[in-house]
């Protein structure tokens, strides 16, 4: 497993940037539920715990442990939700950038530089951001944002599972597993499914 580092952050701190926000999204490929974006500003004395990495490479119990560790030590953070209605209306691409910008606005401390996984945020000055390929595996700030967003969204999907028990959201978190496909075939879409996605395996799209 690749562990995250503070190399990117340290280089920016040396250049005089004080508040560096790592930003990452969770749920982009999910078929149901909102997109969730996390933003985290780490302190310069942040100590990276052993095994700290992108949320996809960390088991659920460890993610929750890391999330608690992050909350105890960070300067500021934010979590932004983009509802299914926006995703269905605008598409997941535009919805993702809306979530990024919302997460930035929600930070109690205005960041002076942004580190993002994979791509630049639209309508934000490119001079003050850096898109890092596999950034969630390299930057501790981005990994931290990924972890808190993942833990938050997992809890959200568990709550949605209580409202829509037929779909087993607590198990697959809205992603396209075989059990999820079978549930959609049998029961159709729920109100929290992303109808804008081209789910070609379906023969119907009735709502529950």
Automatic annotation (TrEMBL):
<keyword id="KW-0963">Cytoplasm</keyword>
<keyword id="KW-0464">Manganese</keyword>
<dbReference type="InterPro" id="IPR024567">
    <property type="entry name" value="RNase_HII/HIII_dom"/>
</dbReference>
<dbReference type="InterPro" id="IPR022898">
    <property type="entry name" value="RNase_HII"/>
</dbReference>
<keyword id="KW-0540">Nuclease</keyword>
<keyword id="KW-0479">Metal-binding</keyword>
<feature type="binding site">
    <location>
        <position position="24"/>
    </location>
    <ligand>
        <name>a divalent metal cation</name>
    </ligand>
</feature>
<comment type="function">
    <text>Endonuclease that specifically degrades the RNA of RNA-DNA hybrids.</text>
</comment>
<feature type="domain" description="RNase H type-2">
    <location>
        <begin position="18"/>
        <end position="208"/>
    </location>
</feature>
<dbReference type="GO" id="GO:0005737">
    <property type="term" value="C:cytoplasm"/>
</dbReference>
<dbReference type="GO" id="GO:0003723">
    <property type="term" value="F:RNA binding"/>
</dbReference>
<dbReference type="GO" id="GO:0030145">
    <property type="term" value="F:manganese ion binding"/>
</dbReference>
<dbReference type="GO" id="GO:0006298">
    <property type="term" value="P:mismatch repair"/>
</dbReference>
<comment type="similarity">
    <text>Belongs to the RNase HII family.</text>
</comment>
<keyword id="KW-0378">Hydrolase</keyword>
<dbReference type="GO" id="GO:0043137">
    <property type="term" value="P:DNA replication, removal of RNA primer"/>
</dbReference>
<dbReference type="InterPro" id="IPR001352">
    <property type="entry name" value="RNase_HII/HIII"/>
</dbReference>
<dbReference type="GO" id="GO:0004523">
    <property type="term" value="F:RNA-DNA hybrid ribonuclease activity"/>
</dbReference>
<protein>
    <recommendedName>
        <fullName>Ribonuclease HII</fullName>
        <ecNumber>3.1.26.4</ecNumber>
    </recommendedName>
</protein>
<dbReference type="GO" id="GO:0032299">
    <property type="term" value="C:ribonuclease H2 complex"/>
</dbReference>
<dbReference type="InterPro" id="IPR012337">
    <property type="entry name" value="RNaseH-like_sf"/>
</dbReference>
<dbReference type="Pfam" id="PF01351">
    <property type="entry name" value="RNase_HII"/>
</dbReference>
<feature type="binding site">
    <location>
        <position position="25"/>
    </location>
    <ligand>
        <name>a divalent metal cation</name>
    </ligand>
</feature>
<keyword id="KW-0255">Endonuclease</keyword>
<dbReference type="InterPro" id="IPR036397">
    <property type="entry name" value="RNaseH_sf"/>
</dbReference>
<feature type="binding site">
    <location>
        <position position="117"/>
    </location>
    <ligand>
        <name>a divalent metal cation</name>
    </ligand>
</feature>
